[in-house]
Amino acid sequence: MTTNVEDCVAYVVLLCMIAFMKVGKDLVAASAVPLILAILEEGESYGYAIIARVRELSDGKMRWTDGMLYPVLHRLESQGAIRARWKVAESGRRRKYYAINREGRKTLEEHKAQWQIVHGALASIWR
Description:
The protein is of the alpha+beta class.
């Protein structure tokens, strides 16, 4: 098999595009609640740590901001899916920590079931 320089360059460009591809706003919004609840299922956390965990889980492809995260956290708290409490961190800084509760676990299970349906449909058609 022979390749030319143009094919190699096109392949490298494609790899770079994939590496820097971002997830669209609609998909980020749709996945915010299940991601937050799943992260909190791992344990109590605070805003910046949740943002960092999303970045880690997505290999840097999802970059949430405070302005996107906190409205969702406040909505989940008002719906009774999570609870929040102020705590002083080891650094001495006061932070608001969030934890999932029974209602949040129920909500997370519902989201998991819905996402599995969507994933199954897409996996079937993309084969």
